[in-house]
Design goal:
The model has no long low-confidence stretch (mean pLDDT about 90). About 65% of the residues lie in helices and about 0% in strands. By secondary structure, it is mainly α. It is elongated. It is built from two helices and no strands. Helix 1 packs antiparallel against helix 2. The longest helix is centred in the middle third of the chain and has 33 residues.
């Protein structure tokens, strides 16, 4: 016996599904991944210069700040026209 729901199902048409929520979620995920990766890189550089190299807090802070500022300008989104 055939499934009764099968007769009422519309055939799949490629490209007709509304994906605005999926696109928004993907953009949010990629943005968070980008900024958290930069924050982790700054933290790792800061701790490495401070403790492993032994340069001290001030050089570690300066190197972390330089990486953070450079990363911010490299990773910020371009404005759409």
């Amino acid at each position: 016996m055939a499934d009764q729901h099968e007769a009422h199902a519309a055939p799949h048409v490629h490209g007709e599904m509304i994906i605005t929520e999926q696109a928004w979620t993907w953009a949010l995920f990629m943005g968070l991944t980008k900024w958290v990766s930069l924050a982790m890189a700054v933290l790792i550089l800061f701790l490495t210069v401070w403790f492993a190299v032994g340069a001290g807090f001030i050089p570690a802070f300066i190197s972390g700040a330089v990486l953070g500022v450079a990363g911010f300008f490299m990773l910020k989104s371009k404005k759409a026209h």
